[in-house]
Design goal:
Blueprint (H helix, E strand, L loop, with lengths): L25 E4 L6 H8 L3 H5 L2 E15 L5 E19 L2 H11 L5 E10 L6 E8 L12 H8 L7 H8 L6
Antiparallel strand pairs: 1-3, 2-3, 2-4, 4-5
Amino acid sequence: MVRRQGEAGNGLPRRGLGDSLLPVPLYVSYGSNMNPDQLAARTGADPARVAARFAVRLRGFRLVFAKRNDDNTAYATLLADHASEAEGIACDLTDEELARLDRAEGVPGHYLRAIVEVLPLTGGPAVAAQTYLANPARLATGLKPPRWYLAHFLAARDRLSPRWVAWLEQVETAD
């Protein structure tokens, strides 16, 4: 399990990604968990701590709606794409909160936890963060997300770049 060590006062690890044994205290969402109310409800995290979240860039990833749900709608995932960049919201979660989130995300059947490199939108060094990527067995093409699901993404418009918000607003939904 990930240990919460080496944190700076802002929740970022004190050291960069050069140390492969670096603990990863950050969680980054690029999807519905960008909604602070949903993230707090799913994890039991203190709403004030979740509200202190910050926006990040995920270089080398493309956001796609390709994780097949049982109702044939799509949820988001990130796909490796060196020419792309996605945005997300990062916050500090405890090991217990991440374990609750594992259950909410359907690990391992629907999503798998992964470590990614993120860059704060406000500047600063790259840091490691945990996120969820769709289980490859659940990937599909030609699906669209439900409108209610996409609304959770837009709950983070106060932190995301205007460009990213505009992109999210143009995503075609299933309903």
